User: Fold this.
Amino acid sequence: MQHSARRTVFPEPRVEPGVQRFRNATLSPQNGLIRTQGRTQVQAFDCEWLHPENNGRADDPVSRHNGAMPAELVPGLPIDVIGQVRAEVFVVAHDGQQALLTGPDGPQPWHIETAGSEHPLDLVRDMAHSNMDDVQLVHSTSWRWDRQSVVLTFLVVIPPETLGSMTSIPVPRADLARSTAHEAPAEIAFAQVLEHALRHLAWLAKEDDVVRETLSDAWHDELAGYVPAPFEQLD
Amino acid sequence: MKYKLACDCGWETQGSEDELVAATQEHGRQLHNMDLTPEQAMAMASPVEE
Assistant:
């Protein structure tokens, strides 16, 4: 049986243990989720799949595929974080010469799923400590709406000796994304989010005694080149 | 049969079903705070051409 990841329509909703069915649901080939009316997200392996060649007609039992998502539907799909609140972490260090972006999964945004039972700040702090030898600062810097979830951005500052074998790159500079009066920008690149995070760190370095005393002279010199900014929604 | 799986963060793994599931569950838990079932891990895997 061949399957396609383009669009799958489900029959009338019916509640059964282990099986979830939805009408007018769309399979997202990006993350393997089912979205209904743009609101409900259901992990695909909980669903009954319908063969797309007959447009997912409910009266054709041959078209159904119960259980796990057919492998041919999702070749190469990445792991995706699916919580309604996602933590996005930028790990930075200053080696005395320049600010560096790094992280346990590389020099890029580090995505962490929140379960709702733990404060996101506590979660990020715990994850940072469990994946890196030393952590100097953990601070939330902004939030935004992205991929149907709230993204809380955190900046984690580590001492340069903690860089170890983690890959790092110079912190990129970017212009901030700006919205119109009533609409968010269509796309915010991670460099823009990081730019704002460091602007917020520059603001904290002036306003927060703990941050001011924790940051090295090299960091203070670096942050002098950033326009201080408060925590805010990036839109 | 061998399978492969790639995470958004760039991490990749491949191996037997048991190896892939174990490695993916560990990666998800350690780096992304995700508890994946074997079914979830395999749903994101694809066979390796041999």
